[in-house]
Amino acid sequence: MTPDTGLVAITGATGFVGQAVLDAAAGQGIALRALARQPQPSRPGVEWVEGDLDDTAALARLVERAEAVIHIAGVVNAPDAEGFAAGNVAGTLNLVTAAMVAGTPRFVQVSSLSAREPQLSVYGASKRKGEQVVMASSLDWTVVRPPAVYGPRDREMLELFRFAKAGIVPLPPHGRMAAIHVEDLARLLLALVPGGEDVSHKVFEPDDGHPGGWTHKSFAKAIGWAVGKRITPLPLPAFALRAAARGDRLLRKAAARLTEDRVGYMCHPDWTVRDEARPPAARWQPQIGTRDGLKATAKWYRDAGWL
């Protein structure tokens, strides 16, 4: 790809998934133009645009002459429905509008597996509405619904590693889940930049390829193995998780990781991906086994002083 015809615009570039996309793009020689709220250090192959999803002028600069947009930015935690809607719906609408005005042909939307069951949480409902904004546009779109994403730099799953190090991991009620390493997700997002009948106007649910996904207990035990501990999984009923969420809110205020809204989808019994929704194998397949990925992540946490 040449800089003029192969430029890819990206939001959320300073976040956990976005940083992995920057790394993967650098390895593939893909030129990026990235949106960031604050000035960023110079990085080869990346042109930074200062602004956010409310800044229409910045969005116009972001998508100008871009071959495609990868929209990663979103709100994971918010105090109310308006906060989720502002980031995940209105922000998406602003970006979609900018892309259509600029004539940007391709749009890859990073959603969430929680959008599959929007009735369970305000977050999931906002991600579904964001998808609908993209789907209603004239763009050549693809939606990706990642399951639990883990890997270096992630602070969301860090707490499970810290619990595992202590030997006891509190869990949702009995159920199953899927997971994916952030580097595999980053490769997928870049693999979807070229459109085509196999990916256009489709919704994909990627994972690590582990057959049948993981039970909450087996995933917790895998984290325990990664940190070198034999752990005791502790499934908790929904009411106990909600009480813990209220306590976390009192202690950490806006920085709380466990929220009552999260409890809504955490307690759903099946967050495995559907076979028919997997990305085309000819385009992408997971390369990082989760046990190995978790162990490498634990090492990264230790080296960074986080664990």
Explain what the structure shows:
Helices cover 42% and strands 17% of the residues. The chain has 307 residues and is an alpha/beta fold. Residues 1-5 have low confidence and may be disordered.
Structure summarized in a few sentences:
The protein has 307 residues and is an alpha/beta fold. The chain has helices at 3-6, 16-28, 56-63, 81-102, 122-135, 158-166, 182-191, 216-227, 238-252, 260-266, 290-304; strands spanning 8-11, 32-36, 46-50, 68-71, 106-110, 140-144, 148-150, 168-171, 176-177, 179-181, 202-204, 214-215, 232-235, 270-271.
**What's the average pLDDT?**
94
Q: Supply the CATH class of one domain.
A: Alpha Beta
Coarse morphology: globular
> What share of the residues lie within helices?
40-55%
Category from helices, strands and their pairing: alpha/beta
- CATH superfamily name of one domain? NAD(P)-binding Rossmann-like Domain
Radius of gyration: 19 Å
Instruction: Give, in order, the helices and strands.
Output: HEHEEHEHEHEEHEEEHEEHEHHEH
CATH architecture of one domain: 3-Layer(aba) Sandwich
Main beta sheet: 7 strands, parallel
Low-pLDDT stretches: 1-5
The count of β-strands is 14
